[in-house]
Amino acid sequence: MVLSLGGLRLNVSPSVPLGLYRLHRVPASLERGMLVVLPVPAAVHAFHSRWLPLLKPIAGLPGDEGCVDDEGFVVNGRHFGPVLPESGGRPVPSMGLGCVTVEPASVIVATKTPRSLDSRYFRPVRITDLSAVATPVLTWR
User: Fold this and answer.
1) pLDDT per residue over 30-77, tens digit each?
2) How are beta strands 8-11 and 125-126 bridged, if at all?
3) Residue 50's domain spans which residues?
4) In this structure, are residues 100 and 2 in contact, taking their beta carbons and an 8 Å threshold?
5) Which residues pair with 100 in a beta bridge?
6) What separation in angstroms does the CA of 135 have from each of 7, 13, 34, 60, 90?
7) DSSP run (H or E) holding 119
8) How many domains does the chain have?
């Protein structure tokens, strides 16, 4: 969960360190590991409040490959954990088995945190859908 307060965001979701983050405009050049803020994709509205944007690190850039296999979610050979088939007794959408190449003007967002709601469940996201880049001001965990 990310709460907004005048250019700052309080993150209370375990996907990234808990804490206070400063928001910045999305730059023209993105890098793996950058934290980005994005609206909750429609595919996962049933699993997360629509009005609480997600805060996730970029795991894949255009041309990178994201795959779901029996072991879980892998981006360019880096393992990000399992892909859960259900949550609360309901089936969860996923990329499905196989691989996707990140298209131009898109990114994969993912963390190694178990149960993280990220691209393993809603595929790559368009860069134009990113609302901000976040930098930590004060974090804890």
Assistant:
1) 999 999 999 999 888 888 787 789 999 999 999 999 999 988 999 999
2) unpaired
3) 2-140
4) no
5) 66
6) 11, 15, 8, 19, 34
7) helix 119-122
8) 1
